[in-house]
Design goal:
It contains ten helices and eleven strands. The chain is α/β, with parallel strands linked by helices and 301 residues long. It starts with 6 loop residues before the first helix and ends with a helix.
């Protein structure tokens, strides 16, 4: 099937609109004016429409011409993106990268890394996703994401995943300053807290069994979608639960949340970075290296 609208014709329309005349467009495109005139006349003939009208010395688009050019510019931009993407793939750079960040981490740490990456490869699309618990590793195993940062524990062995420990997380049992547990003798035990509602960040796994950790209560829980929401719910006294110290230290310092130790409870866990070993893209390798260096030098705190 032959289409009358070509990339070349759209480039001509764009140049005429930007420069204001056929002659100026010809200069911008390094073509003779007669070639510009022919391209427009043929396009008008093939579409059976009028695209330009003369207003003094300037050529103005008709309403039909404006519609064609507005949508045509989207095609020109898409063509440019396609050309760029093709070159990137040929050189080993992925056109896009999906990064999953476990909610144990605040997203702030990744932004300077992305800014540095854009100075090298500004045309690669970066998509950030927040995951919770089992959803972190599932995002890699299901190819929802290419790289996961801060995932809890290690992934199942023999599943084609490369992983490295990043840091240890200290989990703090935290309550609002006005919560009844804040007035009890320390350390608390499980019996002390079982009668109170827990706030839980909902596991983001879609296909694997959800998991929960450090949860012991006889009350129905308040389930929220992110750790950020869990922190705010606990600030308001709507429930209790364990929170990573690196996310709430400022609230502990201000007294908005209070750390209440509980006897015989493991309060540490390890967080990992991981990706599929089959993924050889340069963007993934760049981010994996930079994240490992970041946590080696700075840590999450």
């Amino acid at each position: 099937m032959k289409y009358p609208i070509t990339i070349e014709a759209l480039e001509v329309l764009d140049a005429i609109d930007r420069k204001g005349s056929f002659a100026a467009a010809a200069n911008a495109l390094y073509r003779v004016p007669s070639a510009i005139t022919y391209t427009v006349q043929k396009l008008e003939q093939d579409l059976d429409v009028t695209l330009f009208r003369k207003e003094g010395r300037r050529s103005k688009l008709t309403p039909a011409g404006k519609v064609l050019l507005e949508q045509g510019r989207e095609i020109l931009e898409a063509a440019q993106r396609l050309a760029t993407t093709t070159k990137q793939v040929d050189s080993g750079w992925e056109p896009s990268l999906n990064i999953a960040i476990d909610s144990v981490l605040d997203f702030e740490f990744i932004y300077p890394l992305i800014e540095n990456f854009y100075s090298i490869q500004p045309d690669i699309e970066i998509n950030l996703h927040e995951e919770v618990l089992a959803g972190a590793w599932e995002s890699i195993l299901s190819d929802r994401c290419d790289l996961v940062i801060g995932a809890p524990d290690t992934p199942a062995q023999g599943r084609g995943i490369e992983s490295h420990a990043l840091f240890n997380t200290e989990w703090v049992f935290a309550v609002a300053k006005h919560h009844p547990l804040a007035r009890m003798a320390l350390p608390l035990n499980r019996a002390d807290v079982e009668q109170y509602r827990f706030v839980v960040a909902r596991d983001s796994a879609r296909n694997q069994p959800a998991i929960s950790k450090r949860l012991f209560t006889m009350k129905p829980v308040l389930s929220v979608p992110t750790l950020h929401a869990k922190i705010h719910a606990q600030q308001r006294g709507m429930g209790v639960g364990f929170l990573p110290r690196n996310r709430i230290q400022h609230l502990l310092d201000s007294g908005e949340l209070i750390n209440l130790p509980i006897s015989q409870v493991d309060e540490t866990s390890s967080a990992y970075i991981g990706w599929k070993t089959a993924h050889k893209g340069k963007a993934l390798r760049w981010f994996a290296k930079q994240v490992l260096l970041y946590f080696k030098n700075s840590g999450p705190y």
